[in-house]
Amino acid sequence: MKKALITGASGGIGFEVARRLAAQNYQLTLVARNEDKLNKALAGLNSNGHSIFVADLTKKEDLKKVADHLATNKYDVLINNAGAGLYGQFIGLPLEDQLNTMQLNMDALVTLSYSFLEKASSGSALVNIGSLLAHSSLPGGAVYAGTKSFVANFSESLWYEFKHKGVFVMGFNPGAADSDFHSNAGRQSTDFPKFVISSVVDVADELVKALHKRQKPRVVQGLKNRLMLWGFKFLSRKSAVSIMGQISPGMSH
After folding, report:
1. pTM (2 decimals)?
2. Domain at 79, CATH number
3. How many domains does the chain have?
4. φ, ψ for residue 169 (rounded to 5)?
5. What is the pLDDT of residues 178-214, one digit of tens each?
6. Are 193 and 228 a contacting pair, CB within 8 Å?
7. Is 252 part of any domain?
8. Which of 48, 84, 100, 152 is the most buried (most CB within 10 A)?
């Protein structure tokens, strides 16, 4: 039985991915900061043998506990899904909150990747959840978009470093999804134009499919998102960023 650890697994994309892997006979460890939500997620899986790990990855002591767990327990798959962001203009948001976003989206992801890859053997896989915004920018969400650019570049570099060892690394980049990310960030998914929103079910389906195919270091989720990035190639960078600013929930229009 293969084992997978998923961060940010108490709901949204993380939980939907967990459901699919559980159905494929993976033994799962679900990581998130809210114990009640984790227990509900655990009850929603269709088989036994799974476990939860309560940890707030913005706290160094909690992050160390998860990293130590990865260092002493062999997993076949790590999915770094935990992430957060804030909508709003840069100097209109508390600096400390934005630094916490950087801690979770980058520092925690790098730390857990390191612990996992130290023990990874041929056949293992690391999936880091980035964002479409890694490749398109987002005025009104500058720090979040910047962290996801880091995740995309970092993951692609690791893909090359580890491919000859038989260890697969993928940066998976979803577009805006109908999860609670947006309410946690201070807006709602409905603040985006409807045509840009994907369901968490579709995102999870595509992620698991890409994990099993193991073909690309960078996967952009959703045909509409891939078409948007393709279209941006024919625009100046100034025009592309201006379009993102116009549709951003973090800007005052």
Report:
1. 0.90
2. 3.40.50.720
3. 1
4. -120, 130
5. 755 545 544 544 555 565 677 899 999 999 999 999 9
6. no
7. no
8. 152
